[in-house]
Write a sequence for this structure.
């Protein structure tokens, strides 16, 4: 059985649809800006924030993407008992944490789509998005569902900002993934949706080949110094995809721009023999969008595959890892065939998936 | 100095949620970090920075350079004595 | 599928395969810390953990004899965990740390993700395999069985499933069950019955 990934919807500071995002990334745009009065000392922080989200931010954003999906995807598909919805989020709606931060997600999706299946909520730190796509593919492979709509979402709030600040993980300038001057993360918010399906169709889609997750078994908030989890997850992904590493044309890395993460990825990709494959991070465009990251970044991989264009890794000028990587310092027109997406996250998790262009 | 050290022991236990420990369990010249010490790690180092700021008004900009300060209770107490505002 | 072993922790004690291994003794301290000391877990990191991780570590500890001589656990074990409230208890403590105490605590923040539990277990046992955390409104046997079916179809040999609920302090429960791919049995009813028995102890 072939499994397909199709565009669903995408909302970020860079735009409200796929087309706008293609243009934005083509022109190296970034949603990261200096935002006043953020952080626990009320100073200014570089964040990628959606400007029109004011009140009730999480619920508003989730409702909006559901509305977009109702336009972009057929209502019949969304309502079908053979369709499942998976939500990928790290914190859901923290404005309702005193009660239940996940309740509004179930309610909004249920009201908008009228789907008879309970929404599946996956909350596994920053690898949630890639995990969710892998899970969707599994359900389809099993025959449980014909289509799965995967929605990834997280919004900025005091909780997350204060948290990353307390870890001293935030950069005091826009993040510089893989760069020698990188100082940390720029947080961001976004919402993306992908339709995973057992049917192709007229609209653009890519083939999902396989995926996996792993654990570094090292530290709950710091990555493994040897990239052990990343190496294992990529090997497992290749195995399950019946593919060889030589087939990979492009890697969309996690690239959060912390000293440790980017170094770990460099070591991992070198151990895998992938140091000569063009690689970038989308964190320079979107910031780190946590539970949305995997979905948003896979959508941009799909855009790259549709247009045969790789995007410059925004924020990158000179490599700052101890082992080599082929980081994209400019856009590159390339006939893409097989693309690898990786993600890593708190809890020591790693996830990866492999996609192939059709035709 | 010894009253500072006793106070520090209580503060460390509280700040780092080391519920099972009593001040008597913290040996003053023993390493705090690593498996043979109190099992503290890089996150706990950040908590020390919070403690130094909130309790003693000392700000540390670079956590990596501060590892020597946090080596043992003695080194921590020495540092506070010299730098407390 | 075959249930290799199961364990359960709540304020009454720690249970293994239906039998009580350790009852709670000291009422002056939180029951998780009391059980930790009585079981002599000897894992210093325990005290820094939140209640989700603590309860999982205890339930995991009594399952340890079932991990021996199973080399597949290193890379072919999937951790399938879920709860109903994510890390809510720790979330509220973290919020207090910056709203009331004006000092955002990094050691609290690292526990404000529910999947840290699976990370802690992976670290303890050097398990490098797959791991996923879900938010479910309540324990759903069918959901876990579905996840395990897909996991085994992907090539995993064992699943360690976990459910933990911590709606209020002192009311935590943690249920772990280790399942192997061997045998062509439907374990749905068995799992359902095991949990009901534990809850009614």
């Amino acid at each position: 059985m072939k499994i397909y990934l199709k565009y669903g919807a995408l909302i970020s500071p860079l735009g409200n649809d796929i087309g706008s995002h293609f243009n934005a990334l083509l022109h190296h745009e970034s949603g990261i800006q200096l935002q006043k009065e953020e952080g626990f000392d009320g100073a200014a922080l570089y964040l990628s924030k959606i400007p029109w989200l004011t009140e009730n931010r999480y619920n508003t954003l989730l409702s909006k993407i559901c509305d977009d999906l109702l336009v972009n995807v057929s209502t019949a598909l969304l309502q079908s008992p053979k369709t499942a919805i998976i939500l990928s989020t790290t914190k859901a709606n923290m404005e309702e944490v005193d009660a239940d931060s996940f309740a509004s997600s179930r309610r909004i999706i249920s009201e908008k789509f009228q789907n008879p299946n309970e929404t599946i909520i996956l909350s596994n730190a920053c690898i949630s998005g890639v995990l969710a796509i892998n899970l969707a593919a599994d359900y389809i492979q099993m025959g449980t569902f014909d289509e799965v709509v995967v929605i990834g979402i997280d919004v900025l709030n005091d909780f997350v900002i204060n948290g990353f600040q307390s870890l001293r993980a935030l950069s005091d300038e826009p993040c510089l993934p893989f760069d020698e001057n990188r100082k940390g993360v720029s947080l961001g918010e976004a919402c993306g949706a992908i339709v995973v399906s057992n049917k192709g169709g007229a609209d653009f889609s890519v083939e999902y080949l396989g995926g996996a997750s792993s654990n570094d078994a090292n530290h709950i908030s710091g990555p493994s110094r040897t990239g052990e989890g990343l190496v294992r997850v990529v090997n497992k992904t290749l195995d399950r995809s019946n593919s060889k590493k030589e087939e990979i044309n492009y890697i969309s890395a996690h690239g959060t721009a912390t000293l440790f993460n980017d170094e770990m990825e460099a070591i991992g990709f070198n151990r895998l023999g992938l140091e000569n494959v063009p690689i970038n991070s989308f964190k320079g465009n979107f910031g780190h969008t946590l539970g949305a990251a995997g979905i948003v970044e896979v959508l941009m991989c799909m855009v790259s595959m549709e247009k045969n264009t790789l995007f410059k890794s925004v924020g990158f000028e000179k490599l700052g890892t101890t082992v080599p990587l082929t980081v994209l310092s400019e856009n590159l027109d390339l006939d893409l065939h097989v693309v690898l997406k990786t993600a890593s996250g708190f809890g020591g998790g790693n996830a990866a998936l492999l996609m192939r262009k059709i035709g | 100095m010894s009253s500072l050290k006793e106070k520090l022991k209580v503060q460390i236990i509280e700040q780092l949620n080391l519920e099972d420990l009593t001040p008597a369990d913290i040996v003053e010249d023993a390493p705090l970090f690593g498996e043979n010490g109190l099992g503290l790690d890089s996150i706990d180092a950040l908590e020390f920075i919070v403690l130094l700021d909130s309790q003693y008004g000392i700000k540390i900009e670079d956590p990596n350079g501060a590892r020597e300060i946090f080596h043992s209770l003695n080194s921590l107490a020495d540092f506070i004595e010299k730098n407390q505002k | 599928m075959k249930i290799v072993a199961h364990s359960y922790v709540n304020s009454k004690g720690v249970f293994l395969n239906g039998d009580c291994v350790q009852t709670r003794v000291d009422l002056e301290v939180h029951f998780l810390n009391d059980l930790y000391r009585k079981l002599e877990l000897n894992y210093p990191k325990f005290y820094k953990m939140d209640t989700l991780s603590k309860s999982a570590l205890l339930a995991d500890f009594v399952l340890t004899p079932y991990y021996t001589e199973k080399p597949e656990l290193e890379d072919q074990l999937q951790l399938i965990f879920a709860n109903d409230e994510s890390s809510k208890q720790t979330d509220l403590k973290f919020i207090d740390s910056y709203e009331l105490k004006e000092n955002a605590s990094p050691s609290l923040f690292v526990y404000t993700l529910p999947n840290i539990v699976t990370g802690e277990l992976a670290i303890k046992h050097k398990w490098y395999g797959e791991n996923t955390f879900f938010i479910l409104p309540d324990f759903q046997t069918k959901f876990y069985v579905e996840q395990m079916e897909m996991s085994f179809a992907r090539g995993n040999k064992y699943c360690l499933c976990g459910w933990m609920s911590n709606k209020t302090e002192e009311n935590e429960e943690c249920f772990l069950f280790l399942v192997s791919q061997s045998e062509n049995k439907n374990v749905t009813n068995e799992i359902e019955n095991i949990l009901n028995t534990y809850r009614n102890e």
